[in-house]
Design a protein that fits this description.
Length: about 130
């Protein structure tokens, strides 16, 4: 039996703004834009992961039951520089431990993002597999 995380499902108070945010900063590609359960649903692929947006405002602002979405990159300083130039604010500078750097930012509807870069050559044990491309 195979098991995997297929998608993260997020409410969106402004669906088009959410689509544009993830498309612009992370190269998201819309796989489907359909009406399910009485509302517009958009499935977006980012790398080998997916986000399913539901065209309905969150029941509460921010995280609700989701703490954050982790987005891995191979050029964290470059991504942070581009996003900063584009008006995205970061809570703190890039931080981390040997082999892993990360920074937190807010996406539409107060969704917390963890942007990170991992260097497999500096990691050992399970961490090496955890962050492998």
């Amino acid at each position: 039996m195979k098991v995997r995380v297929h998608h993260v499902h997020l409410f969106a108070s402004d669906l088009d703004a959410s689509i544009e945010f993830y498309r612009r900063w992370f190269g998201g590609e819309v796989l489907a834009d359909e009406n399910f359960a009485g509302a517009r649903n958009v499935m977006m692929q980012i790398g080998d992961g997916r986000i399913n947006f539901y065209d309905q405002a969150p029941r509460d602002h921010g995280r609700n039951a989701i703490h954050h979405i982790g987005i891995q990159t191979d050029d964290l300083p470059g991504l942070v520089a581009e996003m900063t130039a584009g008006g995205i604010e970061f809570r703190k500078p890039i931080t981390g431990s040997p082999g892993v750097g990360y920074v937190m930012a807010e996406a539409p509807d107060g969704v917390l993002l963890e942007l990170f870069q991992a260097d497999g050559d500096k990691l050992t044990g399970g961490a090496k597999e955890w962050f492998a491309w």
